Amino acid sequence: MLQGTLVRLRAPERGDIPTFVRWFNDPEATQFLLRGPPMGMEEEERWYSDLLNEADRVFCIETLDGKLIGNIGIMHLDWGNRRAEIGVMIGEKEYWNRGFGTQAISLLLNYMFEELNLERIGLYCDETNLRAQRCYQKCGFIQEGKFRHHRLKGGAFYDDVMMSILRSDWDAIKRN
Predict the structure, then answer these.
(1) Which residue from 110, 114, 125, 111 is spatially nearest to 164, judged by alpha carbons?
(2) Domains in the chain: boundaries
(3) CA pair distance 137, 69, nearest whole angstrom
(4) Taking Cα atoms as reference points, which of 135, 125, 5, 16 lies closest to residue 69?
(5) Could you tell me the fold of the domain covering 2-175?
């Protein structure tokens, strides 16, 4: 478990699945995610069962009083090049814009740089998701470019912003 002053990151449990399904069926909560149609309990159960066999790692974000508010994950881990990507979702809307996502990302970055000894962490973000981009920038991510027409949403194509943070960027943040 990774813990900060606002949130802790823990492993997902089978009892979390109904909350995940509720989030992933909320169009406002998922408007910026790359995902398919609404998700049912069986599909989410399969996803949960497959977690043990995947290289990707998912953590639950919960408040210090135990309220499950979101997920954060490590994806596309490439040990040879010491890089990975992250994705984050705060599913409980009353926790948006309150620093919970920022702290969850910072906790995960510290783990990825200090414990996993990675060099580069990247992510992709919907160009219209300005709230997420501000959060990522607060955590030290730098925009590297755009993937043009990378996402189809509502019948229109949108660009994705590509962002990353390097170990040297993280070390500078920690020094300050």
Answers:
(1) 125
(2) 2-175
(3) 21
(4) 16
(5) Aminopeptidase (3.40.630)
Please compute, for residue 52, the number of CA atoms within 13 A of its CA located in the half-sphere on the CB side.
5
Predicted confidence (pLDDT) per residue in 112-147, tens digit: 999 999 999 999 999 999 999 999 999 999 999 999
Query: In whole angstroms, what is the distance from residue 3 CA to residue 104 CA?
Result: 9
CB 91 within 8 A of CB 67: no
Give the helix ranges, DSSP H, for the chain.
17-24, 41-50, 100-110, 130-138, 167-175
Strand positions, DSSP E, 64-132: 68-78, 83-90, 120-126
pLDDT in tens, 49-87: 666 667 789 999 999 999 999 999 999 999 999 999 999
C-alpha 104/C-alpha 1 separation (Å) is 12
- d(CA 30, CA 26) in angstroms, rounded, equals 6
Tokens of 143: 């925009």
Share of the chain above pLDDT 90, in %: 72
Query: Which of 78, 70, 72 has the alpha carbon at shortest distance from 116?
Result: 78
Q: What pTM value is reported for the model?
A: 0.89
